[in-house]
Amino acid sequence: KHMKYSGFGIRMLIDAWVYLNRFQDEIDRKVLDERLKDCGLDTFEKEIVKLVDYWFNEKPGNEKTKELGRYVIESGLFGSLKQYKATEMTENMGNTQSVQKSIIKKMTHALFLPYKNMCLLYPQLSKYPVLLPFFWIYRAMKIVLFKRDSIVEETKTYDNVDVDYAKNVAELKKNLGL
């Protein structure tokens, strides 16, 4: 979760190392590999184990392992805001590669929350789901009238994100199977 949305920090890598050292003999690799593959995390796990071996067990590492290591160091303990914003921006850009479209997508998603989230904000919506479009309009009007500053702040969210850095982060995560 942390790696997918922001970063995989040093703390989590040390946790993996401690766990592997303590339970290596008890792990049923066949079952674990099968379950990881079912979850789509098999590539990620293999690369994390390679990094653990490279850092803590003095095994050689390839360029991919070293790149992941640099990313983990940059992540601090649990991931960084910079990494989170880079990931969010590339996910919102999709195939368009447009920062403006990324901002529009982010704002649209913030205004038009999914039904379950809207029910948390407006409990009466649970009884009358047909009113969802009206509650979206109501929410949009409230934001426009009373939270203009937050709209301006949100449009500036990606101002300090380096697009090339964001693309590199997205490529790293793609190579990890995330």
Structure, described:
This protein is mostly helical and 178 residues long. Helices cover 71% and strands 0% of the residues. It starts with a helix and ends with a helix.
**pLDDT average, as an integer?**
86
| Strand segment count | 0
The chain-level structural class is mainly alpha
Distance between the termini: 10 Å
Approximate helicity band: over 70%
* Uncertain segments: none
Figure out the total of helices.
Answer: 11
- Sheet-strand content, in percent, reads under 5%
Largest beta-sheet details: none
Q: What spatial form do the alpha-carbon principal axes imply?
A: elongated
Characterize the quaternary organization of these chains. single chain
C-alpha Rg, in Å? 21 Å
Q: Which sequence of SSEs, written as H and E, runs from N to C?
A: HHHHHHHHHHH
List keywords for this structure.
178 residues; mainly alpha
Briefly summarize what is shown.
This protein has 178 residues and is an all-alpha fold. It has helices spanning 2-5, 10-23, 29-39, 42-56, 63-75, 81-93, 99-111, 115-121, 132-146, 148-155, 163-175.
List the helices and strands and how they pair.
Layout lengths: L1 H4 L4 H14 L5 H11 L2 H15 L6 H13 L5 H13 L5 H13 L3 H7 L10 H15 L1 H8 L7 H13 L3
Helix pairs in contact: 2-4, 4-5, 6-7, 6-11, 9-10
